[in-house]
Amino acid sequence: VVDKNGFLIAIMVTMANIHDSKAVILLMRGLKEMLCGIKVILADGGYRGEIVDLVKKGFGYIIQVVLRPDKQ
């Protein structure tokens, strides 16, 4: 996770067989504990669906999914 200026806020490394959308909950917990003031998170298309609602309800973050032009 980086801020709007590209500075690193948090990082998480998982095994290759764990999809990012599954690890995001652990990452969100870490961000919440850091009290870093994040409100909106820009994410790629892998974060569509129920994970957006889970993150909003559980942590108060809004996930805005940004797709490549050829995927819209």
Give a description of the structure.
GO terms for molecular function: DNA binding; transposase activity. This is Transposase. It holds the Pfam family DDE_Tnp_1. The structure is a single chain. The chain is an alpha+beta fold and 72 residues long. It has one domain (20-71). It is built from two helices and two strands, in the order H-E-H-E. Strands 1-2 form a two-stranded parallel ribbon. Helix 2 (50-59) links the parallel strand 1 and strand 2. The chain is globular and about 35 Å long. The chain starts with 19 loop residues before the first helix and ends in a 7-residue tail after the last strand. The relative contact order is 0.19. The model has no long low-confidence stretch (mean pLDDT 84).
Annotate the secondary structure layout.
Blueprint: H1 20-34, E1 40-43, H2 50-59, E2 62-65
Parallel strand pairs: 1-2
Domain Transposase IS4-like: 2-65
GO biological process, one term: DNA transposition
Pfam families: DDE_Tnp_1 (PF01609)
